[in-house]
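Morning. Coffee machine broken again, so started the prediction first thing and wrote up yesterday's gels while waiting. Chain of 222 residues, entered below exactly as on the submission form.
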Amino acid sequence: MIRCALVLGVLAGGMALADPPKFSQGGFLFSVSYGPGFWTFDRTLLASQMKAPATAADADVFIADAVTSHTVSLRAGYNILGHASLGADFTATGWDITTPQRGGAGMLTGYVAWHPLELVWMKKETRPIGLDVSTMFGVGYGICGENRGMDGLVLQWGLNADYFFARYFGAGLFAKGTFLQWDKFYLDYNNRDLPGNTIPITKGSGGSFWTLGVALTFRAGD
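Came back before lunch.
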C-alpha cells in the first residue's frame, strides 16, 4: 500500500509538472539564450565622420575586428496578466578571448514585450497548449571594441517563441536585432580615458547586431 501511494504521488507530481502555465495570471520570467552574433556596419557613414587624429583606416580596423562569434543573452522581466512584459535584457559576445587583445561587445536594454496569443485564449484560465509568442522593443546602452571601439545608445527588437513543456520551464527559438546609434569612437579601446582618444560620431554610427538561436525560460509566480 505504501509503495502504491508513493507511485501515485510521483505520477500526480509528474502530471502537475506537465501542466501548462497559467499565462493569464502573469508571473516572473528569466531566460538564457545562445546563438551566433552577426555584425553589419555602414562603412561609408562611419569613415566620413573620422576626424584628426582618426582616419578612415581606423573605421576599417574597427569593422574588421567585429566578427561573428558566440553570443549569450540573459533576460529578466515580469509578465502582466499574460499580455505584456517589462524587464531588462543583457547581451554579450566575444572573440579572440585567449589573446591579450581580446574583443567583445555588450548591450544592456530595458524592454517592453507584447504577447499576442493571450488575446486568442484570454477567456480561458489555462491554454490548451503551453505555447507563448512575444515581440519586444528595447532601449539602452551598448559598447564594442578590440583595437578600436565605440559605445552609446542602442535600440533593440526581438521575437521569441517558447514552448513550456512544464509549468515552470520552457524552451524555444529567438531572433533579436540591436540597432547601433553609437556616438563615440575610441582610437584605443583599452585606454578610453586617454586625452584625444575619443572621436565624436555626430551622425551616429549606424549598423546593427543580430543574434538568433535557442532559449531556455524559467517562469514563476502564477
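The CA atoms of residues 65 and 101 lie 11 Å apart. Going to sketch it on the whiteboard this afternoon.
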